[in-house]
Structures are given as structure tokens and as C-alpha cells.
């Protein structure tokens, strides 16, 4: 019996899982399946090389190594994880730089009419800043994707100098997602045997002190209850954090992470899965697995960064595949929402919606050139009738 057959039997045999989170509005007995997009089919590529549904348009807002339009600021190489923050009548889009030693993060500030007001650095001198996450108090957590990597708390408006948050654990950090109801921060780890963590601060809103815990469950479990245990040594020396708790469940290459109303969604690139952690009932389930759709029909592969909307849709970016952002609807349909053509050597990073939900920002990390240095990175904006 092959892996696909075993997984299908395991997941379906687990019965119908009911998610507490509002992103999944109904119970389901299987993972998301391919279907028609609520936006319709993708049209031919536009002048920016983006295939979009009818009614949507794209523009380039920044290119690595070039000045951001209307400013003197040179955009960073290898743009990666990102998020949007309200700022007066406009908003700010922040983006990490996934390059060694000088990585950091930058920001672009937009006016209410989406014109660019300014661009600037909010973090520098850090190492391979991959993904991260926004906090409810308006800061951006920028994470280093290296062994013994750190988390830095940054201020999108540039009003304060970034601060190191090493009490959140030293490991190969990827993404972070805040759960204000349980007052914890979920953290993914980009290792083939990585773990899924949560940071429990002593005081919510202050990430300087607290405990790091790791999710524990049987190794082969894809649906069912889980527990959390403290990590004895968050500094990971000499034993890496992922190896300190014997009962810890290991995930194949943790990537994006997104929390909304009781559910934390996270992705694993090694097995092309989207997981759902039901924080209310403390259980995990599979929301998507490319091995659990009909052979040869998986629209979503190379799962990476993830974001969501207030209406319940998830948007998952591809690192590989055919360079798409796919939508997963609350009804359990997965379909392409956009596709970048002519950039096969790149990956899509940093998807994030403007505060009003009308604009989606993301980057092609290596762009047309595909250069490993990230010198060809391009950051885009897509505008259109997104579902609220």
C-alpha cells in the first residue's frame, strides 16, 4: 500500500473533524479538494507576467537593488515574509530579506490612494530573515532561518529600533502567528524534522520573557488530540530544541503560519501539507495534502507562506510548483488565484492583504533572473474584488 493510500485511509478513518475556527465554516470528512475558483479561471499573463482572474490588475511596487518609486530607498534583495499594518489613513507593507548576515527587513508606506509615501529600513545586520508574523499590538516579528536563529521584534513605522527576542527560542525559525485568546505565539521550524512551538509570554504584549513549549503527539498522527510540553533549554545548545522532548511531533519543513479565531494554520513544504491546529480543543488535522487529491490533479504544490482573510479564505504561496498563490475556501475547495509566468527559478513569498482587504502584496524572491543572491527580487500588488 503506497503513502497516498495509507494517508487517505488514515484521514478518512479519523471521522469528521469539526474546526472551532471561523475559517472553516462547516465540518468536513476529508482534506480540501481541487475545484472551481470563486474568482473564475486565470486569464493570459498581463504586462507584469501575472495571470489573474477577470477584474484583477497587478503593479510592481519594488525591485531588488532599485529605488522604490518616488523614494531614495533601495529595495532589499531576496524579499521574503511580509505583512501589512494600518498607518493613519494608509498602510505599511513590511518585507524580510532572506540573505546571509545583512538580511533584516524593510517597509513601504502607502497613502490612502495606494500611492507610495516612503520606504525605509526597519531591521538590519541579521541573518537570513525568512518569514515572521504580525502582532496584535502592531509590531512585526522577523525570524532568522538558520540554526540557533533568533526572533526580532520590529516597528513598521520605524519609530523604534528593533529588539531581539531570544527568549522565544533559538532554532531554525520560519513563521510566527499570534493567538490573542490563549495569549501565545505559534512558531514553525524549517527543518526536515522540525517542530511546531508556542511561546507563552509572562505578560501578553511583552515578548521579553516567557516559556517555549513544543507540540507533542504520536509520530504518525495526522488527526487527533495533542499536548504541549516545556522545552528545557530554549537556547538549543548543545542539544537542538527539536530534540529535547522525546514526545515532540516532528514536521517535514515548517513554513508559513496564520491564526484566525481559534485555528492556527501552518504549512510543511517537505510533504506539501496545510495543517490546522484547533487551539480550542487542542487537536491537529490536515486541511490539505497533495497526496490526498486525485493523482496528477493537485493544484497546490511547494506549499510555503500562508495568509488569510476575514471572510475565511486561505491563500497559500508556492515555492516551486508552477509559481501560484492558491486559495483554499471554507468549503474545502483549493484552486489557483494567480500565477507568475517566466520566473521558474523563483518562489512566491510574503502574501499579505492591505487592511481594507482590497489589495494583496507578495514578492517573487528571485524574479526573472532566478539569481540565488535574490538580486532579481520583485514585489507586487494585486488589486481587485477579493472576497471579504
UniProtKB/TrEMBL annotation:
A Pfam family that the UniProt record links to this protein: PhoX
Protein name in UniProt: WD40-like Beta Propeller Repeat
Signal peptide stretch: 1-29
PROSITE patterns on file: TAT (PS51318)
InterPro entries reported for this sequence: PhoX (IPR008557), TAT_signal (IPR006311)
Biological source species: Micromonospora yangpuensis
Keywords, alphabetical: Signal
Protein origin, superkingdom: Bacteria
Amino acid at each position: 500500500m503506497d503513502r497516498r493510500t495509507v494517508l487517505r485511509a488514515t484521514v478518512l478513518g479519523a471521522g469528521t473533524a469539526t474546526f472551532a475556527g471561523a475559517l472553516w465554516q462547516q465540518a468536513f470528512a476529508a482534506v480540501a479538494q481541487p475545484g472551481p475558483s470563486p474568482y473564475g479561471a486565470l486569464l493570459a499573463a498581463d504586462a507584469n507576467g501575472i495571470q489573474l482572474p477577470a477584474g484583477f490588475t497587478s503593479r510592481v511596487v519594488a525591485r531588488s537593488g532599485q529605488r522604490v518609486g518616488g523614494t531614495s530607498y533601495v529595495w532589499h534583495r531576496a524579499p521574503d515574509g511580509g505583512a501589512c499594518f494600518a498607518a493613519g489613513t494608509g498602510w505599511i507593507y513590511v518585507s524580510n530579506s532572506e540573505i546571509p548576515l545583512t538580511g533584516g527587513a524593510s517597509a513601504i508606506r502607502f497613502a490612502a490612494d495606494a500611492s507610495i509615501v516612503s520606504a525605509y529600513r526597519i531591521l538590519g545586520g541579521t541573518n537570513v530573515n525568512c518569514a515572521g508574523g504580525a502582532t496584535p499590538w502592531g509590531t512585526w516579528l522577523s525570524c532568522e532561518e538558520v540554526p540557533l536563529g533568533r526572533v526580532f521584534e520590529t516597528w513598521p513605522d520605524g519609530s523604534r529600533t528593533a529588539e531581539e527576542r531570544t527568549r522565544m527560542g533559538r532554532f531554525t525559525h520560519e513563521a510566527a502567528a499570534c493567538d490573542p485568546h490563549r495569549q501565545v505565539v505559534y512558531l514553525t521550524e524549517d527543518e526536515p524534522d522540525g517542530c511546531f512551538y508556542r511561546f507563552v509570554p509572562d505578560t501578553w504584549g511583552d515578548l521579553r520573557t516567557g516559556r517555549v513549549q513544543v507540540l507533542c503527539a504520536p509520530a504518525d498522527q495526522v488527526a487527533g488530540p495533542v499536548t504541549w510540553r516545556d522545552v528545557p533549554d530554549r537556547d538549543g545548545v548543545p542539544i537542538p530544541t527539536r530534540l529535547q522532548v522525546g514526545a515532540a511531533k516532528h514536521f517535514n519543513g515548517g513554513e508559513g503560519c496564520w491564526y484566525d479565531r481559534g485555528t492556527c494554520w501552518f504549512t510543511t513544504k517537505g510533504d506539501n501539507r496545510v495543517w490546522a491546529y484547533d487551539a480550542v480543543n487542542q487537536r491537529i488535522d490536515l486541511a490539505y495534502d497533495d497526496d490526498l487529491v486525485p493523482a496528477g490533479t493537485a493544484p497546490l504544490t511547494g506549499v510555503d507562506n500562508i495568509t488569510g482573510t476575514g471572510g475565511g479564505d486561505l491563500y497559500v504561496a508556492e515555492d516551486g510548483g508552477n509559481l501560484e498563490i492558491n486559495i483554499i475556501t471554507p468549503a474545502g475547495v483549493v484552486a489557483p488565484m494567480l500565477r507568475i509566468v517566466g520566473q521558474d527559478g523563483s518562489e512566491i513569498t510574503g502574501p499579505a492583504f492591505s487592511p481594507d482587504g482590497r489589495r494583496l502584496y507578495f514578492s517573487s524572491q528571485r524574479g526573472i533572473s532566478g539569481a540565488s543572491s535574490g538580486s532579481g527580487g520583485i514585489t507586487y500588488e494585486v488589486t481587485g474584488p477579493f472576497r471579504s
